């Protein structure tokens, strides 16, 4: 029979992790996203309090407002009770979110997606794809700096980088 104190402690730690996620994810998203609850579904979850790491495996899906991340495995890393990195891995890990109220969604797919929360940067690694507002980027690795609005795409040795850039609409 499980120790009730240990179960309660794990439950409180998981709740603290979710609360921390809630405050860090909303910095660059639709403002109301930060006010939404975080929902994580997976086949299994493991929390290592000492290391500050939560690992979710098997058909992982995380939703918060307009944010959705799906993967085979998701690892959430904490430092000083703040989320510093979220890593999603899968055949095709998927990320989508509306960054600001009047903008279209950002959609991204890759074998690995790493979100660095403190500097608002996403790395897409392995057969990477990123699109927003009709602009598309494909490459082996794509780095997207959300603060600066900068995309850096790199190819592997055999392939190239592909970009489709939609022309701006003329003003009224």
What radius of gyration results from the CA coordinates?
17 Å
Total domain count: 1
What's the N-to-C terminus distance?
70 Å
Q: What is the CATH T-level topology?
A: lipopolysaccharide transport protein A fold
Main β-sheet, in a few words?
10 strands, antiparallel
Write out the CATH superfamily name: Lipopolysaccharide (LPS) transport protein A like domain
Number of helices: 1
Quick description:
The chain is 13% helix and 54% strand. It starts with a helix and ends in an 8-residue tail after the last strand. The chain has a single domain, classed as lipopolysaccharide transport protein A fold.
Task: List the main descriptive attributes of the protein structure presented here.
mainly beta, disordered N terminus, ten-stranded antiparallel sheet, 172 residues, 10 strands, lipopolysaccharide transport protein A fold
Description of the molecule:
This protein is mainly beta and 172 residues long. The protein has a single domain (4-164), classed as Sandwich (lipopolysaccharide transport protein A fold), CATH 2.60.450.10. The protein has one helix and ten strands; from the N terminus they run αββββββββββ. Strands 1, 2, 3, 4, 5, 6, 7, 8, 9 and 10 form a ten-stranded antiparallel beta sheet that branches. A hairpin with a 2-residue loop joins β4 and β5 (82-98). The model is unreliable at 1-28 (pLDDT under 50).
Compile the SSE list and pairings.
Layout: H1 4-25, E1 39-41, E2 44-48, E3 53-64, E4 67-79, E5 82-98, E6 105-116, E7 121-132, E8 135-145, E9 150-154, E10 162-164
Antiparallel strand pairs: 1-3, 2-3, 3-4, 4-5, 5-6, 6-7, 7-8, 8-9, 8-10
């Amino acid at each position: 029979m499980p120790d009730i104190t240990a179960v309660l402690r794990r439950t409180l730690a998981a709740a603290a992790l979710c609360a921390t996620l809630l405050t860090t994810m909303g910095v660059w998203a639709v403002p109301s996203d930060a006010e939404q609850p975080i929902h994580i579904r997976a086949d299994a979850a493991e929390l290592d309090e000492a290391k500050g790491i939560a690992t979710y495996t098997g058909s992982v899906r995380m939703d918060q407002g307009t944010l959705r991340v799906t993967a085979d495995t998701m690892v959430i890393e904490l430092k000083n009770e703040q989320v510093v990195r979220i890593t999603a891995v899968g055949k095709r890990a998927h990320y989508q979110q509306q960054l600001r109220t009047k903008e279209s969604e950002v959609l991204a797919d890759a074998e690995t997606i790493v979100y660095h929360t403190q500097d608002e940067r996403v790395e897409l690694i392995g057969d990477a794809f990123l699109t927003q507002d009709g602009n598309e980027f494909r490459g082996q690795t794509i780095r997207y700096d959300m603060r600066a609005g900068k995309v850096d795409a790199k190819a592997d040795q055999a392939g190239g980088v592909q970009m489709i850039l939609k022309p701006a609409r003329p003003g009224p």
